[in-house]
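[Backbone geometry]
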Amino acid sequence: MKRVLSILLVMLILAFSAAPMTSAQTRRHRRHSRTFWQKHRDKLTVAGAATAGAGIGALSGGKKGAAIGTAVGAGSGALYTYKLRKRHRHRRRV
């Protein structure tokens, strides 16, 4: 009698534990395919401004000018990116 009850208990546990696994397979996740530019737009804008500032500073003042130009370029790029550039975020209606 104990053997039959233990087998029945194990079968019930297996039956109820398998139910969530089958329902999890029906979930669908939509992936957003964004380009590299869309994902890293802000970082690339600030890095580009810093690079341009470093180039201009290096031409005018050598190593010290390049360091100052990098700081000024990164600061102006960040100012443009986070304060001045208008962002229009429209979600697509699917």
In short: The longest helix spans residues 41-84. The radius of gyration is 29 Å.
